[in-house]
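Chain and backbone:
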Amino acid sequence: MNEIIEENKMDEKIKKPGTLYLSATPIGNLEDMTYRSVRILAEVELIAAEDTRHTRHLLTHFDIHTRLTSYHEHNKFTKGPELIAYLLSGKDIVCVSDAGLPGIADPGSHLAQLAIEAGIRVSPLPGANAALSALICSGLDTTIFTFVGFLPKTGKKRKEVLEHLSNREETLIFYESPHHLKVTLRELCDTFGSERRVVIARELTKKFEEFLRGTLVELSSYFADNLPRGEFVIILEGGSEDLQETEEESLAADSPTKLVARLIEKGMDKKAAMRQTAQTLSISRREVYQAVLAEKEL
């Protein structure tokens, strides 16, 4: 009888699912790693990494020799079920992204959903996060904020997202690459107004960490003259009725031609300035175009 009881206990132990750990990794400085994350990364039998080459450098630094497997945006639908089966067999897995917390702007969230649906324990290994690190150093309101992350790639979808956010009063957090930063700043300028305060963080926790502060038009002009380098976090001031009314009253006092010229001086391109003028003065773009054309003919 005792042998049967022991055998049943062993069966139960074997059938118990493993744990899916979601571990933060450095966003720049390798010392961002926590002692707990380093220990568990070394103890588990498998690490699911967004980029195995990138993660291998991190593991080498901490003398960790755990087996790596690739899990990213392009294979998550096929690889995810395989990892769940591995967890259900009783093994633990640590999921990591290239930087920061997995599940924030990467496929780690999909794996967590699959694990929860399968009754698998999901546990965080907290640590560095670029969005919150930039926010707390921005000097802007931290009580209420919305993480937007990367904007959609297509122009139509980007416009829809930005228009949806245009009247939000909380601080907004965006991620952006160096290749698209200039365009994104112009789009933010068009949507939220050129005088909205913004903080841009780059190279967080690295040697050349930098925070740039100013209005949207000021930083748009800055990057028109300075090549963006590194990954960026954009912290945008939330809107307020007072801020919106003050800007609208100031702009509405101008004639169409003066307002177009004023917006161009602040860094907008001509087409965007004419579109913004039409919206501000509640007139058609055709009227703005005709006014600008008439001014040229004088």
Residues 176 and 268 are 20 Å apart (CA to CA). The chain has three domains: 10-128, 131-239, 243-297. The beta strands are 19-23, 46-49, 67-70, 93-96, 121-125, 145-149, 171-176, 197-202, 210-215, 232-236. The first helix runs from residue 2 to 15.
